[in-house]
Amino acid sequence: MTFTELRLYFLCGEDNGSASSLDGLRPQHLKELTSASAGDSGARLLEVIARLCNFLLRGSLNPEVCPFLYGASLCALSKSDGGVRPIAVGSTFRRLTAKLGCRAVRTGMTGYLQPKQVGFGTAQGCEAAIHATRSFVFTGEAAGAVVVKVDIKNAFNSVERDVILKEVLNKVPSLYPFLHQCYHKTSHLYFNGSLVSSQVGAQQGDPLGPLVFCLAIHGIVTDLASPLNVWYLDDGTIGGDPEVVLADLEKLVPALREIGLEINSGKCELYACGALSEGSLESFQSLIPGIKILNKAELNLLGAPIFPEGVTSALEAKRQALVLAQRHLTQLSAHVALTLLRNCFSMPRMVYLLRTAPTWLFEDEVKQLDDTIRGALESVINVHLDDPQWCQAALPVRCGGLGVRRVHDVGLIAFLASAHGVGDLVARILPCNGGGVPLPFVPEALAVWSLSGAGDRWPVDRARQRQWDDIACERIGGELVSGASVADVARLKAVVRPEAGAWLHALPSPQLGTLLDNDSLRIAVALRLGCKVCERHRCVCGVMVEEDGHHGLSCQRCAGRFSRHHCINGLIGRAMVQANVPCVLEPPGLSRSDGKRPDGLTLVPWQRGRCLLWDATCVSTFAPSHLGCTSRSAGAAAENAARSKHLKYSALEPTYDFVPFAVETAGPWGAEAKSLVWELGRRLRDRGCDPRSGSYLVQQVALAIQRGNAAGIMGTFEPGTTRNGGF
């Protein structure tokens, strides 16, 4: 393992949330100790860790230390069937070494294990197994084939270690010294202060555990004659003529027993594609007592329904789970609840089902699920959404939405992307079907896409769901703009700018100052979607405020612009100081043509030997004087404001490097503001700060804009009817 490879792995490969073992050392600790901010000490430590990993891979550790370094603390997780799943949390150095070894052999082992085993190193391995099984049962109905799902009892913890080490020595000898030290002797596992000796099996939690388990059973798996023979770790699927499948099971059961494994007959299932004779059924039940006989609606593989008959119940289960989650989300802060709904409880919980099942065929069930998502969103943000607003909210943030996706929008494209992504692997799993045979429901899905408004465009890479999604979202965005009012056109063009949606990507944390209060979030969402913000009322300045609340964004008597202006300048100033650029806000002795002072000045040269002078301004996208240009081009009002600032500071520009930091209430920034933040982000990274420092600064400024918008709109009410119009 080289120094460069280890640094790359630290930056990209290790999960920040990984737990610690008995020594309390987490991977995040090593990341921080070896980051750029640690300087030369971090680089030297990284070299030492690289030598340690190579030392462990060579198997040079003192045998007396092996039971402790290669031991683990146990975490007992409950299974759905009432059993216990023991997860071993090993030493960070042991896990790091195992992951590096896994990375080194992944390509070769993936090629060796495929197509029979898709549980190690195979992208979309679950999806390939599901699509292959569906293709088999659809073509096997006429032939009277059967499909048997095989489950192995306590597989990882039961496989014999001598079998593991023998296969490792034969197939991946480069890992044998390390794995021999890990598994040739008893290791110590600790649970609630008690010592448990680990004498058999691979540790659940060992990054190399899936590989060694697959190697242990690979010879047995490849010896089966059934035309459908695909395994995802300890979950096997065997299909073919009843006689062939029965013969394979008769070989499989004793072969697994020889290496310490036992079939879990209570979890094994059988589906008959055609009529199954009584004699064949009795043979299967005799060989695997308690095997469950399934119908079409019950046949699921790896959590996905195989037949359309099972899709309805799967969608309903997702809907019920969302209803349960909604009850809890409404008890949280609106910003936190929106983040959880978008990133955890809505589409992320459903995308696997959408990629592996033809959910787009079930319009009524999909609509019910989408209505539930819509209701959950409305209850969280306290905003009523009409159909166009819900359509926009369901777009990705990059396309101007909230990122709370609709199943109606994602189901078809997710299925198409999955089918195209696994087509070649499925053809290898089922060579009897021929490589040119399309997967079930794919021709129908392509026909639906062709008839849609985006059907005249096709992704360059049809295996990439993002490319399908971009085409579909562009069509939806075009439909929203078509026939919209001038203000809505300006809004829709503004919200697709990346900086306009940055506040939606911020982690809501009161400690970091990134949590919007409920009023601010409601107003921010309503302005983004064009929803009703308030009832018609008369502003403190005497002007009538409409339901969209746009007057409050530009009213000279509302307080929002002052707090927003102060916050933006404070963010820039703190970023300057963190980047080791001393600066001062509202520098004395400098003034523009009208006598007002600039917002900030660096005390050391910024570039070309000149100090940086900046001045921030936030203009309303929806002001009547700006609507003409903002409806034609997003960010036009900010660019006009930047040009105006240049004129006001023309007397100082020969001496200073002046940058107008111009933004709009709808989110777009001027080009010079974006360039300044990009340069600040680069300097922060060079100083050893987080590589995402520039993105975090963009999020903070975007949040300041939304807080200012909320304060401006709340400030239109007469005193005594609401809180003070500050943050």
How would you describe the overall organization of this protein?
This protein is 49% helix and 12% strand. It is built from 28 helices and 17 strands. It has a 5-stranded mixed β-sheet with strand order 6-7-3-8-9. The longest helix is centred in the middle third of the chain and has 23 residues, at 407-429. It is globular. It starts with a helix and ends in a 13-residue tail after the last helix.
Offer a few descriptive terms.
single chain; 727 residues; alpha+beta; four-stranded mixed beta sheet; 28 helices; disordered C terminus
SSE order and pairing:
Layout: H1 3-12, H2 27-33, H3 39-57, H4 66-69, E1 72-78, E2 84-90, H5 92-113, H6 125-140, E3 146-151, H7 155-158, H8 161-171, H9 176-183, E4 187-191, E5 194-198, H10 209-222, E6 228-232, E7 235-240, H11 242-258, E8 269-272, H12 278-287, E9 292-294, E10 300-301, E11 304-305, H13 311-329, H14 334-345, H15 351-356, H16 363-381, H17 387-393, H18 407-429, H19 442-451, H20 465-481, H21 486-495, H22 502-505, H23 518-529, E12 537-538, E13 544-545, H24 560-578, E14 583-585, E15 600-607, E16 610-619, H25 624-630, H26 636-648, E17 657-664, H27 671-686, H28 693-714
Parallel strand pairs: 1-4, 8-9, 16-17
Antiparallel strand pairs: 1-2, 3-7, 3-8, 4-5, 6-7, 10-11, 12-13, 14-15, 15-16
